[in-house]
Amino acid sequence: MSSRTLLASTMAVLSIAAFGCGGEESAGGGDAVTAVTIQDFAYMPRDITVQAGAEITWTNEDAADHTATADDPEVFDTGTIAQGEEGTATLDAPGTIQYICTIHPTMKGSITVE
């Protein structure tokens, strides 16, 4: 297991421990990072809430490539994230943003920026 995969797995476990098993996760602003795992063709957690300025990191644990792309790609688009790789976005404007995987459009998530 690579150190990057181990780190992503550890972050996912810590996120579950810190935030419970619910569908939504929150993170503070500034240098806060919110971790989203891509696994079994789904974003986990699917819906998150962050403070403005938080960096969101998607880690792909699937064998297939994925993206995390806002309904308006000008807001954010991670580009293709290969297995074991990460994509990031930092969101500053308050509101709720819906996003999908452009390769697998049935994969959906949302980010609420406070």
Q: Could you give the topology of this structure?
A:
Elements lengths: L2 H17 L4 E4 L5 E7 L2 E3 L2 E4 L4 E6 L8 E2 L15 E5 L4 E6 L7 E6 L1
Parallel strand pairs: 1-4, 2-5, 4-9
Antiparallel strand pairs: 2-3, 5-7, 6-8, 8-9
CATH architecture: Sandwich
CATH fold field value:
Immunoglobulin-like
Number of strands: 9
Query: Number of DSSP helices?
Result: 1
CATH H-level name... which superfamily?
Cupredoxins -  blue copper proteins
Listing every helix as H and every strand as E from the N terminus to the C terminus, the arrangement reads HEEEEEEEEE
Biggest beta-sheet profile: 5 strands, mixed
The level 1 CATH classification is: Mainly Beta
- Return the average pLDDT rounded to an integer: 81
Shape: globular
Helix-residue proportion: 10-25%
How does this model look, in words?
With 114 residues, the chain is mostly beta strands. The chain has a single domain (3-113), classed as Immunoglobulin-like (Sandwich). The protein is built from 1 helix and 9 strands. It has one helix at residues 3-19; strands at 24-27, 33-39, 42-44, 47-50, 55-60, 69-70, 86-90, 95-100, 108-113. The strands form 2 sheets. The chain has a 5-stranded mixed beta sheet, with no helix packed on it. A hairpin with a 2-residue loop joins strand 2 (33-39) and strand 3 (42-44). It is globular, with a radius of gyration of 13 Å. It starts with a helix and ends with a strand.
